Amino acid sequence: MKLNSIIVEDEETSREILKNYLKKYCPNVLVLGEAANVEEALVLIRNNDLDLVFLDVEMPYGNAFDLLDRVGDINFETVFVTAYNHYAIDALNAHASYYLMKPISIDALIKAVDYVTEIKTKEDALQDQILIPKTNGVDGKITIPQLDGFEVINMSDILYCKADDNYTEIYLNTNKKKLVSKTLKYFEDTLNNASFVRVHKSYLVNVNEVVKYVKGKGGSVVLSNGKEVMVSASKKSDLLSYFK
Predict the structure, then answer these.
(1) Which of 51, 89, 163, 192 is the most exposed place for a label (fewest CB within 10 A)?
(2) Taking phi first (over 0 means left), then psi (-120 to 50 degrees means alpha), and beta for anything else, what does residue 95 get?
(3) How far apart, in Å, do the first and last CA atoms of the chain sit?
(4) pTM of the predicted model, to two decimals?
(5) What is the CATH number of domain 141-243?
């Protein structure tokens, strides 16, 4: 399992040593960037989807705990790297995954990375299990992932879904939009028994929200919110079968 990571450490030599150790002994760790202080670290954290942050405790203009306070909602694992053992309790209180003492032991580093890998693997497995949608007629709900867990929405509230590469944009009748890290094909399979039909390579619509069909080679449908969606010629018969 690949772990996207950054190194936050004010000493350049220490950053290089850790980076080289990771490259040689922990090839599943991808170092996306390095920061020498809290401000640089904040930029990297806000601009990257991270699994792991290697974090020195003492830095110029603030320490590791100041950084974590400013980040707020933390969705990555943290491995503290420090020459001082008296921060261990604070690290535990900050929900650190591991605490490495300088100079870094290669065995301890490998153990820390293995531990984080295990955590993330279990999280992914649990998320996949949780996100098996409940699509029977009694429940009528579907779960969608979020950074801090998942959200449950009524399938009847979905107007349409739009493909966005490996993501799907879900448009609701509440004028809200959800971006989900699942393909449109995933939702097509998930919602196939719930009056949803694929009308285009990029669109899946709730037929209960269709208020008008406009003739054409494929034509188009107008949804209850006024959105007009083109219908592929190859998908036209699938759509019209709902209105026979």
Answers:
(1) 89
(2) left
(3) 49
(4) 0.55
(5) 2.40.50.1020
